């Protein structure tokens, strides 16, 4: 993060606009109840980023952002500063003009007074850029964290969190850039739409209705279809479908292939990118829903540690003699399609129980049968 600190320090000497006189700072113009439950859909030339707006935490900052987004003020601005796998920074109105490159990072400041700084800079955190030593210098510029950045905690106001498109943020952060962190490619914000936050997935369906859904695991070796069994484990099935819907299993490695026993995946340690805060809230220990359903080839169960209630995201597919597991793990699904893919994965070369060549769930999707 040294590069980010250097850039912000440079702003102190940069020809930024003079500090507003009393009364010229932005004041919240939108009622709090109108800002709650809102998202910003940020369309860029590199892809779309969706952010939850934290109105209760930083109402003035959120009101300012919504007001500018709706008026199109961000359209045409670029991400003018990047740190690979660290942060991306944008929102400077000067960056609309390719002829003013030397001034990028100096515009749109000193419009917001200081607001709450208690939210952590986890992956996907969006915070307002300020000038070092000037707490009331925030404005249009913002940064987005690719991963956890605890060094920024307490320094900036987090007013939003990325819930979709963190891979786009990461891609932008790793673009080739000059010595000042300016990407060689102009990545523009094309448009920002403010919308109501979609309802949480799989909360309205009854337990019986969950049986109408299947999950398709799109893997690097082909697709595997899983039929849900809510009659056996309704809590686990609902949570599994929710985790699929928010993308927790996307980019997940199949990290264990135990010949004639199980294929295992779902441990977040083996995910290609960290979980977002919006995804993390779906990860918690699940109650044991043990039944006498036999663990036989094709049956899918939640993995766990020693404690019966320690299952969360990791699951396994039986590929051989798993009868010794019956009654000790939560059975929640069965393979209903793609058995040839399961067989192919079961036969890959392993070192110990780790596939020699990585096998990845590129995407998991839930759909009605």
Helix and strand arrangement:
Blueprint: H1 2-13, H2 32-35, E1 38-44, E2 47-53, H3 59-71, E3 79-83, E4 87-90, E5 125-128, E6 142-145, E7 158-164, H4 166-173, E8 189-196, E9 213-219, E10 222-228, H5 234-245, E11 252-258, E12 262-265, H6 277-280, E13 299-302, E14 315-318, E15 331-337, H7 339-346, E16 350-351, E17 354-355, E18 360-368
Could you explain how this protein is built, in words?
There is one protein chain. With 369 residues, this protein is α+β, with helices and mostly antiparallel strands. It folds into two domains: 2-196, Cyclophilin (Beta Barrel); 208-368, Cyclophilin-like (Cyclophilin, Beta Barrel), CATH 2.40.100.10. It has helices at 2-13, 32-35, 59-71, 166-173, 234-245, 277-280, 339-346; strands spanning 38-44, 47-53, 79-83, 87-90, 125-128, 142-145, 158-164, 189-196, 213-219, 222-228, 252-258, 262-265, 299-302, 315-318, 331-337, 350-351, 354-355, 360-368. Mean pLDDT is 92; it is low at 1-16.
User: Total number of β-strand segments?
Assistant: 18
Characterize the largest beta sheet: strand count, sense, and whether it forms a barrel.
8 strands, antiparallel
N-to-C series of helices and strands: HHEEHEEEEEHEEEHEEHEEEHEEE
Helix content: 10-25%
Strand order of the largest sheet: 3-4-6-5-7-2-1-8
In CATH terms, the superfamily of the largest domain is: Cyclophilin-like
Distance between the first and last residues' Cα: 48 Å
Q: What is the architecture of the largest domain at the second tier of CATH?
A: Beta Barrel
Strand content: 25-35%
Rg, Å, rounded: 24 Å
Q: Estimate the global geometry from the Cα principal axes.
A: elongated
The secondary-structure class comes to alpha+beta
**Rounded average pLDDT:** 92
- Specify the CATH class of the largest domain: Mainly Beta
Number of domains: 2
């Amino acid at each position: 993060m040294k590069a980010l600190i250097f850039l912000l320090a440079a702003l102190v000497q940069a020809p930024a606009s003079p500090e507003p006189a009393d009364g010229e700072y932005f004041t919240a113009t939108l009622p709090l109840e109108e800002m709650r439950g809102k998202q910003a859909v940020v369309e860029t030339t590199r892809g779309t980023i969706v952010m939850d707006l934290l109105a209760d935490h930083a109402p003035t900052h959120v009101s300012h952002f919504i007001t500018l987004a709706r008026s199109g003020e961000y359209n045409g601005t670029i991400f003018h500063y990047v740190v690979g796998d660290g942060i991306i920074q944008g929102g400077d109105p000067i960056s609309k003009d390719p002829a003013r490159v030397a001034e990028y990072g100096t515009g749109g400041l000193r419009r917001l007074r200081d607001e709450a700084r208690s939210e952590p800079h986890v992956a996907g955190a969006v915070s307002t850029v300020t000038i070092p030593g000037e707490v009331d210098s925030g404005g249009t510029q913002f940064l987005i964290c690719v991963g956890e950045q605890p060094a920024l905690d307490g320094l900036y106001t987090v007013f939003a969190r990325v819930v979709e498109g963190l891979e786009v943020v990461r891609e932008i952060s790793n673009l080739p850039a000059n010595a000042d962190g300016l990407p060689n490619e102009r990545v523009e914000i094309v448009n920002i739409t403010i919308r109501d936050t979609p309802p949480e997935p799989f909360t309205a369906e009854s337990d019986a209705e969950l049986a109408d859904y299947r999950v398709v695991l799109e893997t690097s070796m082909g697709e595997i279809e899983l039929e849900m069994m809510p009659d056996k484990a309704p809590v686990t099935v609902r949570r599994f479908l929710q985790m699929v819907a928010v993308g927790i299993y996307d980019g997940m490695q199949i990290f264990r292939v135990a010949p004639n026993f199980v294929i295992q995946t779902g441990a977040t340690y083996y995910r290609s990118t960290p979980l977002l805060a919006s995804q993390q809230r779906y990860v918690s220990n699940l109650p044991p829903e043990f039944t006498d359903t036999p663990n036989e080839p094709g049956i899918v169960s939640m993995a766990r540690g020693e404690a019966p209630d320690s299952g969360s995201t990791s699951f396994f597919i039986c590929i051989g003699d798993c009868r010794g597991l019956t009654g000790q793990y939560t059975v929640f699904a069965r393979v209903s399609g793609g058995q040839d893919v399961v067989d192919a994965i079961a036969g890959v070369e392993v070192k110990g129980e780790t596939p020699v060549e990585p096998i990845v769930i590129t995407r998991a999707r839930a759909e009605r049968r």
